[in-house]
Amino acid sequence: MFDLSTRSVLVTGGSKGIGRGIATVFARAGANVAVSARSSDETSSVAAELDQLGSGNVIGVRLDVSDPGSCADAVRIVVDAFGGLDVLCANAGIFPEARLDSMTPEQLSEVLDINVKGTVYSVQACLDPLTASGRGRVVLTSSITGPVTGYPGWSHYGASKAAQLGFMRTAAIELAPRRVTVNAILPGNILTEGLVDMGEEYIAGMARSIPLGTLGSPIDIGHLAAFLASDEAAYITGQAIVVDGGQVLPESPEAVNP
Ligand code: NAP
């Protein structure tokens, strides 16, 4: 539907889950894609698989978003490989459980360092090439958790995902003169490796609370990222878009299965 074949895309946290789904959609569309994460082995093997999907090149790049130097190094590698960068999908994030009564300063810092500072550092590292692109795009992966909903054990995570939206609104204004748009996707419960770790009971309970009856797939998020990266979405900026199968709509569990 959209022509993304001339785009170069960096996906942080692209080795697994939602990031891998986003990278898959761009690779299928013929974009050049850099799959990045902390594990070099995983980024290399995922890149080799995705490279088979489309006409563009897919490479793996090691990147720790909580380290500004690592972000700068990775972006340099991507720009050297592709000759520029048009799209940053700032997707890397973690969601370890910690209740307020036992959360340590270290647990809080880790979530904020990766989810909040990591978002800011990765966008900062991409500013020059995104500006040079003339059609630069930043697509953040936030969440319904924090901006819209709450869930016991994830107060620090919810704060981090809401913080991404606060960042986005001012970044969208600051970057508009550079023709760089900044938008956020708010996934509901998406069946990823990270979520599988939460256990079958959690997943079954979540599915029952979703009007469309199932968890989403990483590809569902990739499709919105692809749209936001397209020429057709050039006039959309500073927006937070929920992709959740209707999960945030019911007033009570009875509203889903009346
Ligand atoms: P996942 O399956 O656990 O994958 C996380 C990815 O991020 C991996 O590639 C991981 O690779 C990478 N990563 C983690 N820390 C990193 C760091 N410091 N620097 C660079 N890469 C890092 O998680 P997911 O479920 O796909 O979640 C991805 C994003 O979607 C997160 O921002 C999350 O908050 C958001 N989200 C997920 C859901 C859901 O239902 N799954 C719902 C709403 C929002 P390495 O460990 O090798 O670095």
Automatic annotation (TrEMBL):
The keyword Oxidoreductase applies. Gene3D superfamilies: NAD(P)-binding Rossmann-like Domain. Keywords: Oxidoreductase. It comes from Mycobacteroides franklinii. NCBIfam families: PRK05653.2-2, PRK12826.1-4. It is an enzyme of class 1 (oxidoreductase). Its EC number is 1.1.1.100. The gene is fabG_15. One of its GO terms (molecular function) is 3-oxoacyl-[acyl-carrier-protein] reductase (NADPH) activity. SUPFAM superfamilies: NAD(P)-binding Rossmann-fold domains. The lineage of its organism: Bacteria, Bacillati, Actinomycetota, Actinomycetes, Mycobacteriales. This is 3-oxoacyl-[acyl-carrier-protein] reductase FabG. Residues 7-188 form the Ketoreductase domain. One of its GO terms (biological process) is fatty acid elongation. Pfam families: adh_short_C2. Belongs to the short-chain dehydrogenases/reductases (SDR) family.
